[in-house]
Specification:
- It is a single chain.
- The protein is of the alpha/beta class.
- It is built from 18 helices and 31 strands.
- It has a 7-stranded mixed sheet with strand order 5-4-17-16-18-19-20, sandwiched between helices. It has a 5-stranded parallel sheet with strand order 7-6-8-11-12, with helices on both faces.
- Strand 16, helix 10 and strand 17 form a beta-alpha-beta unit.
- The protein is globular and about 70 Å long.
- It starts with a helix and ends with a helix.
- The structure holds coenzyme A and adenosine monophosphate.
Length: 610
């Protein structure tokens, strides 16, 4: 029996023993009373009674154990021509001061703090400073528009918002502050204070009495210590797209999160203290939370924070430069980044300029890895390329080739097998198991392992309806797929109205809501359309009102503008087509909506990519 098989079986046969063992790697301030509390099934809780501080585990612990001078964070920003490094000691001290700023603004345990920041070290410090105080952070990705930020403010009701004057995108300064001001204006819930990081290329106007300058506030702030936090208390809320326009506030608890992420660093990624780990994502996404910030720091690694793109900053050799410069051992990114690099440098000529011998593994996730891109990466990098499947909700991998447990043979198109802790099944619409090889809904038997969502913020009912209702006893992933006769899982498509644009998860419903605000539009439908680089891009269909006098070109232009304005540039909504009518099913639903919900339709689309 392979090591993977043995560990996997242990994890399902005796989950409490398994995770209690993994929890020994975490520094607890109070030992838990119960490993798994099943008394309120299907709502399960891990490590009830335990107390810890996740920031202490990510920073202070390493300093206290003698790794204070080791690098914790490398900031590399080709867009601003800046590089900076922080040892564990330096990062701990900075975070303690940012916690001091928050405390002086009245933030205490349980308060929410929204972080609306680009990829700067202060974003990481902000997250950890909240964790230090037991405050709940909610990071909002910078590419979302003011209305999306306002929706998150109204749901999370933050006491304080941490933000920056702006970011540089494609050489242009994108001002964040006017978007923040507008969002606060739109929101019903108002923060009592904002702390704004002024970036050298853009100065934000401050609102007197509410806004504080980051540098000035940190300079005079006291250093604040870690507080004890219940294992069950939320560490963060991260909003993600669902079927409706209203985003879902995924809650991450503190104890299970720390245990699962630390365990995954060795088992899934095979990295240990001192190794350089680079997740080329954004702190606004779950990959950034788990594998730029918490996972690598809990494990004592050096994490890389890269403010740039895979191409154009300045070229398709950017990733290779970073790997060679910092001796990156494991790189984690989305397939779309490799599609962009391959498009610009098909023969990987730029790779030859750099020494990539430090790199042991490339991990891909966030969207389906098309075999052509995966093979290209394998051929040129000459290291294992590991596809793995997970979601904002799960916080870490459901299915992967766990190289820390001994790599399994790769089958292109499959992220390999269920990770220990996960019992993945394929069910038909009636909730019955399908035969091996048949497509159905991918579900995970409850209880889920630690580190996964216990609920949605302030919305237990939506949590139940979205994930637990359709298949009693299971968590519904909303992905369709199959498991083959060797136990390899294949993830084919979403079963809801979520599309995946450049590894970013977006709701078509939210775009349709934006389009419905156009005065000339009677009806609209947005579907995901195959794109060579981004995987999918949205495509809008508009039916105009009978009296409409304006040209179709003008209205299509307005449609693109309103989605950008209300959802944000991240939606990459560039095309709208005026049609006479939307094909309807007999029940009145638009045909596109039906098509997009059909796993088989997406399956056919996905296999075209091969
Ligand atoms: N703040 C403000 N705007 C942002 C932003 C941010 N933090 N991040 C992106 N945007 C804007 C971009 O400028 C772009 O706007 P545009 O329409 O004016 O060009 C839009 O949002 C879409 O951004 P992006 O998805 O980054 O597309 P791109 O065309 O700029 O780059 C790729 C394409 C493939 C290079 C890019 O998507 C990429 O690097 N993907 C890597 C995968 C990844 O990080 N996935 C995250 C999950 S793991
Ligand atoms: P997010 O919550 O943004 O991480 O997006 C999660 C969704 O991305 C999943 O439900 C899948 O639809 C898709 N996804 C993530 N990783 C993979 C993968 N390795 N293969 C196929 N789809 C993936």
């Amino acid at each position: 029996m392979s090591k993977y098989d043995r560990v996997y079986q242990q994890s399902l046969a005796q989950p409490e023993n398994f995770w209690a063992q993994a929890a020994q790697d975490i520094l607890w301030r109070r030992q838990w009373d119960q490993v798994l509390d099943s008394s309120n099934a299907p709502y399960y809780r891990w490590f009830r009674g335990g107390e810890l501080n996740i920031c202490e585990n990510a920073l202070d612990r390493h300093v206290n154990e003698g790794r204070g001078e080791q690098l914790a964070l490398i900031y590399d920003s080709p867009v601003t021509a800046t590089k900076a490094t922080y040892t564990y000691r330096a990062l701990r001290d900075e975070v303690a001061r940012v916690a001091g700023v928050l405390k002086s603004l009245g933030v205490t345990k349980g308060d929410r703090v929204i972080i609306y920041m680009p990829m700067v070290p202060e974003a990481v410090m902000s997250m950890l400073a909240c964790a230090r105080l037991g405050a709940v952070h909610s990071v909002v990705f910078g590419g979302f528009a003011a209305a999306e930020l306002a929706a998150r403010i109204d749901d999370a009701k933050p006491r304080v918002i941490l933000s920056a004057s702006g970011a540089l995108e494609h050489g242009k300064a994108i001002a964040y502050k006017p978007l923040l001001d507008h969002a606060i204006e739109m929101a019903t819930s108002k923060p009592s204070a904002c702390v704004i990081l002024q970036r050298p290329f853009l100065t934000a106007a401050m609102v007197s009495g509410r806004d504080h300058d980051w540098a000035e506030a940190v300079a005079v702030a006291p250093m604040v210590d870690c507080v004890s936090v219940s294992a069950l208390d939320p560490c963060y809320i991260l909003y993600t797209s669902g079927t409706t326009g209203h985003p879902k506030g995924i809650v991450r608890d503190t104890g299970g999160h720390a245990v699962a992420l630390k365990w995954s660093m060795r088992a899934v990624y095979d990295v240990g203290p001192g190794d350089v780990f680079w997740a080329a994502s954004d702190v606004g996404w779950v990959v950034g939370h788990s594998y730029i910030v918490y996972g690598p720091l809990l494990q004592g690694c050096t994490t890389v924070l890269y403010e740039g793109k895979p191409v154009g900053t300045p070229d398709a050799g950017a990733y290779w430069r970073v790997i060679s410069e910092y001796k990156v051992r494991a790189l984690f990114t989305a397939p779309t980044a490799f599609r962009a690099i391959r498009r610009d440098d098909h023969e990987a000529l730029l790779m030859q300029k750099y020494d990539l011998t430090s790199l042991r593994t490339l991990f891909l996730a966030g969207e389906r890895s098309d075999p052509a891109t995966l093979e290209w990466a394998e051929r040129h990098l000459k290291v294992p390329v590991i596809d793995h499947w997970w979601q904002t909700e799960t916080g870490w991998a459901i299915v992967a080739n766990c190289i820390g447990l001994g790599a399994l043979p790769v089958k292109h198109g499959s992220p390999t097998k269920a990770v220990p802790g996960w019992d993945v099944q394929v069910l038909d619409e009636g909730g019955h198991s399908v035969e091996r090889g048949q497509i159905g809904s991918l579900v995970c038997r409850l209880p889920l392992p630690p580190g996964t969502l216990p609920t949605l913020w302030n919305d237990d009912a939506r949590f139940f309806d979205s994930y637990l209702k359709d298949f009693p006893g299971y968590y519904k992933t909303a992905d369709a797929g199959l498991i083959d006769s060797d136990g390899y899982v294949y993830v084919m498509a979403r079963t809801d109205d979520v599309i995946n644009v450049a590894g970013h998860r977006l709701s078509t419903g939210v775009m349709e809501e934006a389009l419905s605000a156009l005065p000339d539009v009677a009806e609209s439908a947005v579907i995901g359309c195959r794109d060579a680089i981004k995987g999918e891009v949205p495509l809008g269909f508009l039916v105009l009102k009978a009296h409409c006098k304006r040209s179709e070109t003008e209205i299509a232009h307005d449609a693109v503008a309103i989605v950008r304005d209300r959802v944000g540039p991240v939606a990459a909504f560039k095309t709208a087509i005026v049609v006479k009518r939307l094909p309807k099913t007999r029940s009145g639903k638009s045909f596109e909506v039906q098509l997009r919900r059909s796993p088989m339709a997406k399956h056919l689309n996905a296999s075209d990519n091969r």
